[in-house]
Amino acid sequence: MRKIRKAVTGSLAMLMATWGFSVQADNHDDGAKGAPVEFWSCNFKDGKDMGDLDKAIEAFNAWADKNNDSQVAWVMTPVFYGPENTTEVGWLGAWPDGNAWGKFQDAFDASAGKVFEGFMEVVTCNAHEMATSLGINPPEEPPQDGLVIFSRCTVAEGKTPNDAVEAHRQLSAKMAGKTGANSWLFFPGSGSSQQGGAFQYWQVLGFDNHAELGAAWEMYTNGGGWQTANATLSETTRCGDTTTWRARRVTN
């Protein structure tokens, strides 16, 4: 796809100079590493809807089955959002590593022209962003459908992105078993709109359903979660300006 937008983050030893992003970090013994993700930010054309998009997705999956199926992708629709959000539908795509991303892009450019045209007949996209995804508490396998919360995070003065990653890891360890959330950090890359550098990365939280999200809210609000989060993160990074999306896995 060539135009869908916003989000997504790995072991910061990975140099993403090609996409305009570079972070140096320690190797953690949990094996986490950086992985490329993309987001297309789109709106439906007049007379088009999700049914039309699903037909384009069917064509994409048929192409992927024959040519390259390394991308895992979700269609994203906003659930809770502010007036600045202009995205009706997004495409979030992820790959296991940069090698898989490069091979996929070459294959797509070489033989998926009509597939891409099928998408562009349905939607108009105003942004296509890359990011480096870093797993903080990722699932063992790519998730299916669910809810995803993006929060913009700003590193405190005198601190580094590495410090922020470590703080998020510490908070994840403290919250282990208290919430079913999966979590990542997404560091912006090529095409990203950072509003003049107003934030450094996204914190991304994933839930299977509203019940799981509601339980996490209860723990965070009334079970001491926010106090723990504040004590762990406040001196290193601050996250806010959240948007919640419904994610529907669309690749095979």
Key terms for this structure?
252 residues, alpha+beta, 8-stranded antiparallel barrel, two-stranded antiparallel sheet, 30% helix
Main sheet overview = 8 strands, antiparallel, barrel
Q: What percent of residues adopt helix (DSSP H or I)?
A: 25-40%
Q: Kindly report how far apart the N and C termini lie.
A: 16 Å
Gyration radius, in Å:
18 Å
Order of helices and strands: EEEHEEHHEEHEEHHE
User: Strand pairing plus helix content: what structural class?
Assistant: alpha+beta
| Strand composition percent | 25-35%
Shape label:
globular
Strand order within the widest sheet?
Answer: 3-5-4-10-7-9-8-6
Q: Count the beta strands.
A: 10
Identify low-pLDDT runs.
1-31
Mean pLDDT: 87
Count the DSSP helices: 6
Description:
It is a single chain. The chain has 6 helices and 10 strands. The protein has 252 residues and is an alpha+beta fold. The strands form 2 sheets. It has an 8-stranded antiparallel barrel with strand order 3-5-4-10-7-9-8-6. Strands 1-2 form a two-stranded antiparallel ribbon. A hairpin with an 8-residue loop joins strand 4 (72-80) and strand 5 (89-94).
Secondary-structure map with pairings?
Blueprint: E1 15-16, E2 21-22, E3 35-44, H1 50-66, E4 72-80, E5 89-94, H2 98-111, H3 113-120, E6 123-137, E7 146-155, H4 161-175, E8 182-188, E9 201-207, H5 210-222, H6 225-233, E10 237-249
Antiparallel strand pairs: 1-2, 3-5, 3-6, 4-5, 4-10, 6-8, 7-9, 7-10, 8-9
Helix pairs in contact: 1-3, 4-6
